[in-house]
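Annex B. Sample input.
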Amino acid sequence: MLPAVRVYLSGPMGAGKSTVAGAVADLLGTRALDLDERVEELAGRSVAEIFAERGEGAFRALETEALNSLPADVGVVSLGGGTVVDDDTRQALLRGGIVVTLTADSAVLAERVGEGAGRPLLGADPQEDIERILKARGEAYSEAHAVLDTAKLDAEEIAAEIVAVRNRSPIVVPLGSRTYCVEVGRGVRHRVGIRANEHSTGEAILVFDGEADRPWPADAIRDLTLAGKPPIEVKLSGSEADKNIASVQKVWDTALEAEIDRRAIVIGVGGGVVGDLTGFAASTLLRGLALGQVPTTLLAMVDSSVGGKTGFNRPRGKNLVGTFYQPKFVLCDVETLSTLPGEERIAGLAEAVKSAWIDSEESVAMLERDAEALLAGDADATIRAVRMSILLKSRIVHEDENESGRRMLLNLGHTVGHGLEAASDYRGIRHGEGVALGMIAAMRVAAQLGWGRHEETERLTRLLGSLGLPTNLDERLNSRALRFIGSDKKRRGERIHFVIPRLPGQTEIELVGLDELRAALEQA
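Annex B, continued. Sample output.
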């Protein structure tokens, strides 16, 4: 069992939230509470009276007060039908506990509520009103750790499934009807067949790097076959130098020659290159097929597998052709890191440092405490770093899916890092190593332009060094790398959106002239 994690049951009226809440509480040995009853207790009036006398706005304010004052011994909360409609409330619940939406067909819900006595949102035709409510709240209800149909299972079966979700503790990437979960832990890769069947009734196209008999592709082939989806196999090199249109064409042609249809799912098993290429292929095959990701490198787990960026490189630079296309599931299994060369695993830690610096002082301090364990590959420390990174990314992607604003923060270290990679023809430096040096470059620019402090540069450099990452920027920075900065996707004419790291949690985006940026890097 996890430490105390509160479960919130959401969904429309008639879904059975109160009944299921009691069953979940019994399984967990905790207490259930109905939020409407808590509101009535605070107001001294029934829900219907609050609506009639003070309106829905006052009721929602009382709901927020009730949520903020829940007794400590309450482990399961049955929410009101409209509690999660407010985005701030919904995101807070997703971050602070496990949210499960209970629902059913409108006819089933209408039968359960009868004439709707005491329900202020229902009129003469309850089913019509329920259909309207479901349509209006559909996107909000989809943003949950799980959505369960209560017409198909009894309360005890639903409760058992909710406890299983709680114990898996997935991370939600909340994007309305395109919401998906990221599972992090040991052995989660073996759920690939289950997840593929949840999101596809057709064939599976499995894209992987290396030979099919290597442990992780072999596991995926076996698990998909056991789930009734023996996969169509596509082997790629996984090399950054081969992250090109020819590799995408190989995925396209193999799938089309197998005569797949739009019910198929494309699944990537491998590092960031495989994940990006798989995602791009899935987004374009038959104008879009379901996508699943099973990242097997630390870099892919903490960054590229989550958030929906896909693409490939061109001679002018890295990832200049691509799409935004979200997966249906992501399975981050730290056991797959056991076969990763130490240098590759360590390189992936750079993205965790990036995430921590964007996130908060607490996250940076966690990496500093865990540095020795992370360097040694400790599984628990790695899980903490991966979860921290994905939690940050899920929040930012929810706010800015297509990188028009806040999501640019996730490019900390990447402008110069990508330039260093491109200058080496993607052979002389790993992506994570480039990001590490790129973060030091960003600190240098911030200090030169009066936006940062040398103390923070020193702290970041110590943290990167303690994790085994490179810190000697001048050894790599050259005129060719500086020229590639001009090809960055964030360029706007002769200026570029550059991510400036200040104190942890205070990273910002500034529009900087390219000449000014290059001069700041050369003069420091």
